[in-house]
Queue: 3 jobs
Job 1
Amino acid sequence: MLKRNFPQLLLVVLFVGAVRVTAQEALPDLIRQVKPSVVSVTTYDAKGESLISGSGFFVGPGQVMTNLHVVRGAQRADIKTLEGKGRSYPVIGVLAVDEEADLALLSINVPAERSRPVTTSTSLPEEGEKVFVIGNPLRLEGSVSDGIVSAIRDVPNLGKIIQVTVPISHGNSGSPLFNMKGQVVGIVTVKVTNGQNINLALASARFAEVPAVGLLSFADLAGRNRAPQRSEAIADLWYRNGLDSLWLGNYDSALTFFENAVNRNPRRAEAWVEVGFCKVKQGKHEEAIRAYRRALQLRPNSADAYNRLGDAYFDLGRFYDALESYQQAVRLHPNMAEAYYNLGMTYVELGDRTSAMAQSRKLELLDADLYKKLKSEMQR
């Protein structure tokens, strides 16, 4: 028996070894392909002295995506490409800003042939999937590090947060997170807790939602939030601290911040949504429902709030209330894939396979991964 099985065993060993070699060879090839799309970002004060450095990547001709905190407070900035010896180009201004997501789209005075836009994937990587980052940690330009996806979290009003084992340092802010197809699946944002960096990236689906602002100079950018009312400023500080805690998955801490935010400014709808989300995480669904309804009183056209409200009802087994909420969500946002998935799952719970199948057909056109997930649930 041993003699007959040995050749087969040898073939298996050789095949596994070949797969490993191929995977090892693939990463250097990918790095060579995508590295020209990545840039370093350096900011300067009014005296021309450098402030902080970060990373970014081309998403279009003369357009670089980075973290907002990299350029906030600067008087000017430039980028440096990473191909060959690299070339520096001035930043003209800011084209789009997303405060909550910490994103800024920069306009660069660069020849078209020097812009090498990345390929972006809106599909989330799976836990355990291999990923890599190219950036400029501690001003070490073009540094490459790799690891795996260790977790994916959801943050209302923000999107999916990807936690990775890839080593991250200051200067990596704004770095692209690549999958093993060379596609950008997220943007790295450095978050610090207890003196240690937590390796996080915002999923790339958020990129398309960054609001355009025309072309802002750095002076205009600094003046956007100048002199807010004291109570609103304090409420905003609480709110942003809450978002930081959500990035890190600290729901109890986040709830404290968000409750302080709504106490200071009870008319901030998104803060009530976050309160509801944290309450769901604590298993306090009735309190969550009240928070979501408060958000909808302030912002009746919020598809996200209706979708979250549906989740709270679903967890309580109130499936008809959940259906009504999810239906409102897709009415307000006809391309909201997650709400169609939630509708399908609710119909599954109610034993209505025909209606669940109808939702799956709509979902197939919007999100292939969620479509497969719903079909799998329907077959159980």
Note: Residues 9-24 have pLDDT under 50 and may be disordered.
Job 2
Amino acid sequence: MTSSFRTSIVGLAVTLCVLTASLALRAQTPAGSVGPRPNVGPTDRPVVNAAAVDRGRRVWALECTSCHAATARGSDQVPSLLHSLLILKDRQGSELGPFLKKGHPTQSGRPSASLTDAEVADVMQYIRQRINDTLRGSALFEPGDILTGNATSGAAYFAGAGGCGACHSPTGDLAKVGTRYGPVDLQQRMLFPVAARFGGRGGAPSRTAITVTVTPQSGLPITGQLIEQDDFFVSLRDASGVMRTIRRTPAVKVAVEDPLRAHHEWLDRVSDADIHNLVAYLVTLK
């Protein structure tokens, strides 16, 4: 067998492998499937482009399925990407790209740093579609799948490893929460809590409102609910309801306090089993 013929055979085998895996992945997403309904999931959820998802599916089939599975849920040894903080923060490869540039194992043995920016962005679109598949309104979403956990294990996780009891109480803020919300809404609120808006002029911010304290080079600190911030300005609403915008300079100190930070950090370590167990426990709080 000549070297060129052997190379052609190997190339054909790889192509067939990728094609088979791609078809298997495609079969899990019905043609014409739509995303979740509005106001489901994080409020800044990126838009998913169908063409990019198809391109990302091919890269995923070649490089990622052996560890992360077709659904990106991983395995007992590999964590799910669906609630990875890095993935949830990503916008078109902004987080995943630098991560892969540092080096990460791939299915084909290709250096992860060699993935192009376009390939990384397409892979993120594929993962983003897998996340959307878990949200209400998706063609693949089934509410009946929510209650698959163990309530006893969920109660133990709530009081122990989950650290939920540090901020919440089944007889306090969560009393009868299983009556107020169904399993789907409970999981939604648990995974994607939304900071409350300011109560208006003269009103007090909710305990979940993100607050910011801006300390100028001279003068008193200014504290209020964070409205928006970037590299140039910080906008906040003070206790009297007045909106203020302060220019950021190296001399201006900005300290942000997010009461939901623990929820955001928890997403990076919680397992699928813990999530389902917690939901199974919370629905029992009648």
Note: The first helix runs from residue 3 to 27.
Job 3
Amino acid sequence: MPKYLVVIVFLCMIQTIKAQEKSPIQTDRPDQTESPSITPKRQLQMEFGFVYEGENKTTSNFTTPNILTKFGLSDKVELRLITDYDIRYQQANDVTIKKKQFNPTLIGCKINLFDEKKCLPKTSLLLHVGLPFLASKEFNKDNVFTTFRFLMQHTLSNKMSFSYNLGAEWDGVTTAPAGVYTLSLGYGISSKIGSYVELFGSAQGKKAEHNYDMGFTYLINSNFQLDISGGFGVNKNAPDYFVGCGLSFRTGD
């Protein structure tokens, strides 16, 4: 078993033993809609995701894993670090070409702007800076880049919520940003099981990509959650399909 999986299992066992009656963990996965919730002050939260994507008939990608690390700096601010490792398979003339790469590391923060009040959604601002020098060598000549999103959420009932993101992303290669959006409807099936359906996409110039997905979460305890998800591309620029799973846990005061 890989060393990082041993560490994950060990930490999860500790959190299962230590979990107390407190507010359940709030995660940014498995959907693409980032939550406006802030990681509690002085708590460390880690979210691991594994994704297989069928880009088209000849190319597929496997991300193993995507790791989001969050730390609650205050009641209004959390610090963030994102890393992921991609394995790409491409079929050409009955030969499979395998390519591995570390994508640029992202560092940033999430800032709570408003709490929910009547028609005003709970709102946070998400900011990231991409560091291509902390990546595979093919990214080393690219520029430092930025991304931002406004994260909004409405509570529709004690079991249902509507969340959406609006923002822009630069890739460090071109100067033109890509506009991004997400729309997600979440439903609590029980106190342990959550679900969602989602539409998300991006547009850069005349090129647009739109996707649909859905998924489920299972809360082991207030500090530990499992998830599974899957979806497909709505238009030709989007991947054919994608499936994923993950786990999230937190530790601290």
Note: The CA atoms of residues 30 and 227 lie 6 Å apart.
